[in-house]
Structure formats: structure tokens, C-alpha cells
Amino acid sequence: MGVEFSQMAAWYEYSPVDKLTEYPRQVLALAEKSVAQVLAATETPQISHLITATSCPDMLAPSLGQMLTERYHSNLSQCQAIDMVQGCAGGVSAMILGSQLAELNKSSVLVIKSDAARKATSESSELHKVFGNGSFACLITYTEDNKRLIHSRSRQYAGLSEVVTIKLGHDADAIIRREIADMSGDQRQHLGLSMNNSQAMALLSHAEGFYQDFVRESEAPDMMILHQANPVIVRHLEGIFSKYEVEFINTASLAGNCGAATVGIALHHVWKQAEGKKVLLCSYGTGGMITAGLWQF
Fold first, then answer.
1. Nearest to 292 by CA among 271, 268, 263, 251
2. Threshold 0.85, pTM exceeds
3. Cα Rg of the chain (Å, integer)
4. Pair 274, 267: CB distance under 8 Å
5. Is the peptide bond before 62 cis (omega within 30 degrees of 0)?
6. Considering 84, 150, 168, 262, which has the largest number of Cβ atoms within 10 A of its Cβ?
7. Which of these, 105, 131, 124, 2, lies nearest to 51 by C-alpha position?
8. Average pLDDT, consecutive stretches of 10 residues, N- to C-terminus, the chain (297 residues)
9. Side-by-side strand order, sheet with 108-116
């Protein structure tokens, strides 16, 4: 017994030079673009759980999951909604949890990852041009064939919890008071997404060791899809893993960094060629986390 990705959809917009449109409740709107495709693709089975993952939701409450449940009430009103706000690092965590719940309950779980990642960064930041906006949705369904979640692993590295920060929380008032002169101009310079480069490099230095530990506990994948942080980082990691017999997927230049949705968008891009393969999905970043799951597709 196990689980399969019975439906999948993705949507993204990205340009390293052009300004992308911003509007209220954009994370919700992005999520709807993928969710609508999944729910309309076939006769949807009973969904037991709805899991959402994002880096920076439109608002704290109601949550993204609650707003989607209201929007698609006829499909989702009977399911339990779980919201994860773990940044980019939560992208794979949501898919692992969805697979575990689907197998445990012999049910279907809808997983949604959505981020208006470009909107989280200041236009004055070098990071701004590598981020895009996007969403991914998949239906993970219990099956009795050999498709399954083979193994999962997560580790948080000490001293790297603030590798990526988005300061729009209860403590933001102190930042606003301190930087009040800038708040009418570029609020995101102080409250938006920022990255600590030294911590980022330290986290990346753990990537190969994490992989080696993972395959010792499990088995080697046929295909590897990592968080698409930016073209430079992905090329660096592609070089590191070139010594292993694994197909490395790189869509960083195609969709940009869409936060928690990046791994799902990359998976959707190669979904057909993943059939029958063991696929490693790995997300990392926020919180100093690396999380990976290995699925038999």
C-alpha cells in the first residue's frame, strides 16, 4: 500500500527585468489558479485533509486554508485544513505530511503551495529579480500498488535559523518605530524578505552530507528536484551532485524562486518523465532547515 500523485497543476509568472503586478490577496489568487485545475480535472474523491504551505500569507487570519475552504466549499467543507508557514523550507514538508495522512486514512489529501514571492522583497534588493509568483496543487491519493513515499528526513542546523527572514509579525511594530522615516517609501526594505548570505552558504555546505545520510537510510533516487533558490545556487548544487548517478532538474531560470511552491512547480514540469522513477524532492532555507522526501512515482 502507498500513495500516488493522482492530479497535479502549477502556475507561475516570472521575469528578471519586468515589474510583476501586485494586488490584494494575491497569494489566495495564485493558489486558486492551481487548485481550480486539480478540482476540475476529474471527479474528485472525498478529500480528508487540505494542507497549504506559504512563506508570507496575505493575512494571518483567516488563514489561506480557511479562505480556500470557503472558496471551494462544495469540495472542501468536510476536510481538515492544516496551514504551514515555514517559508521555502516548508515546500516538501507539506507533501510529506500529505502523503502520510493519505496513507494513514486511506484517503485523498489536497496539498497547495502558493507564494507571491516577488511581492515579499524590496525593489531595491538584489534578491528582487530572482523571485517570481506561483502556486502548485496536487491530489495525493491512497493506492495499493507500489507507488509510495519511500523515506523522508528533516534536519534543522544550529545557528542558521535566520538564513531567511520576513519580519511581518507581532514584533514588526518595533522595526516600524525605529525606521519610521522610511516606512512611507520602501517598507519592504525593513519588513520584507531578506537573506543572510553567510548563513545561506553555511546551509548549502551541508547539502551533500544531508544527501549522503538520506540515501544511507533509504536508497538512491533516479531524479532529484531541489528548491529552485536562484540560477547561481542551483548550478552550484548541480555541480556538487554531478558525481552521483541521478537526473538533476533545474527550472530556476524558467519560473524563478516562487518560495514554497518552487519544488512543486519543477515537479509539475517533469511529471510525465518522472513516471516509474524514484524522485527525491528537497526544500531548504527558512529556519536553517533541509527537508527531503523520496517517492516512487
1. 263
2. yes
3. 18
4. yes
5. yes
6. 262
7. 105
8. 94 94 96 95 82 94 95 90 93 97 96 94 87 97 95 96 86 81 78 85 95 96 96 95 96 94 97 96 95 98
9. 2-13, 133-143, 108-116, 47-54, 80-85
